[in-house]
Amino acid sequence: MIRDTTIGSKLWAAAVWTVVGFFVVNLLAMIATVVTSSFATRWLGTWLPIGWTTRWYSSAWSEFQLGDVLLVTFQVVGAVVLISGVLGVTAAYALARRDFAGKRLLVLLFLLPLLIPPITFGIPLATVLYRTGLAGTFWGVVAANLVPTVPFVILVMIPFIEQIDPKIEAAARVFGANTFKLFIHVLLPLLLPGILAALLLVLVRTIAMFELTFLVAGPTSQTLVVALYYAVFAAGVRAVQSIDAMAVVYMVTTLIWLIIALRFVNPTQIVTRAKQQPAH
Length: 280
Known about the structure:
This protein has helices at residues 7-38, 55-63, 66-97, 103-115, 118-132, 138-162, 166-174, 179-208, 211-216, 224-233, 240-262, 269-276.
């Protein structure tokens, strides 16, 4: 492979690294500002706060009821990940193994929630949930988040399932495996890297999903990102440091979820598997 050493390529590389560096520096500066403010007793017109304290975290915990909000967030994320996995993998298998009239149209419909901004279909969806009485409840929030996550799992898993030779399944059935044993002992080990990678992305998406959750959540079904929005924009006067402490809790919670998930799955496993499959 010949490396391009022309002036144009060097200028392009320098421009790309400059933009990336500028973005990273600004991102780290914003995070550092929020974290510093959450520990500041007073910070006005100086490079660093006058003093340091941790009382804003206890204040935010009690004022915004973060214990209840975190519990609801964990429950919503867990339910969405579990249901998305069950429905998405099942539907993906059916679409990957069966040909029928309208299959391409159906796949296109699954693409729509991923291509259209959530607020576009979120308002009609919230209207339906309010009419059915689900809006404002835990299961209403879960149902709203399933609209984009189930199609996402389906579209991720279809090519992964198509890479598995149907002859493997036929051989398992010849040896007496029923559908349940076929899935547990044959398909699941082969699909597990793809399933885990897809569910990891669903987990991250659900934690950060604001629009749909905001439209259907009630006082007892708010996730952390919606509660953070209300803390910033709801009526009343609140200490900036207390809101920043809540933002730090949100960042740390998301980071912990990611670290735990990445202990079990590497998102690049899908790509790696796709490259290795033809060799078998």
